[in-house]
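hey so i finally got around to running the thing on that chain from the lab meeting. sorry it took forever, my laptop kept dying and i had to restart like 3 times. anyway pasting the input first so we r on the same page abt which one it is
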Amino acid sequence: MAVFTPETRGPLAGVTRFHRGIGGAESNVACYLAGYGHRVRWVSRVGADPFGDHLLAEIAARGVDVRAVERDPHRPTGIYFKERLEGRTGVLYHRAGSAASAMSPPPFPSPSPDGVAGEAARSGRVLHLSGITAALSASCLALLRTLTARRPGRPVVSFDVNHRPALWRSGDPAVLAELARDCDVVFVGEDEARQAWGLRDADAVRAALPEPGLLVVKRGPEGAVAYAAGAPSVEVPAPRVEVVEPVGAGDAFAAGFLSGCLRGLPMERRLRHGHVLAAAALTAHADLGTPPARDHADALVALDEARWRGLRLAAGWTEGARRSGTAGTEAAR
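ok and heres what got predicted. didnt touch it at all, straight out
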């Protein structure tokens, strides 16, 4: 989606100048993974309009393959506006009838179901999906049911629940749990699980979702806990962060964790990479923060327990580290 962030604080009615950027759960994850040096393809649908042009150019510039993105000549690219209020960030969406909301199985409206979009959805090591897409339309939900269905040769399917109450006013968020049960890696916030399903804590979430081989429950500033089949749970605290804006932090966390999975890292380091990329998002006004260089992130993730718990990440820490070439912790303090 195209994102418009006000240059000043206050209600949108009084704002006259905005910064245009990019956003969207799946594309955010794709951009962060590409920033970590992974080969990534984004599969979606945008309008054949200037906002669609902007999205494709910006996402491609971040190293993501966008050749599988289809252009819709009849429906617009979705957009949303942020509202910078005192102590919180509001959002105003304009995506009803958008190109993305018209996605449907098999995998997308296309002259050939085996075209580039279909191939992209089948060929990667990991296919990452978002519960936001499931809420956009009946056809989008059908698409996610198709992509999460267990079948021979299916890639590892990663699913971020991404419960947004405003999107489920006329639907039942229990469908998000149904989708999660068919996935291999699942991300959900403890607060989301409480609001959507009435589950009180991380252990209750695991009890309700025993099927995924790997379940990650995010606990906000307290950290995150991972449940892997046949292994003890692993909990890692989050570093202290100077929060500029929370939007996009969950996507960044998922990308960091998935990077650790792709690299075969131990569970603790996967969670730490999630926290490091989440901190990049939390310390930026844009949905997409500047990711740290991977060697810098690796150095932070390798800190001993005491130094990790003492880590402080301030606004601008990733840009400063990239400029200085620092791979240690001093640029992050």
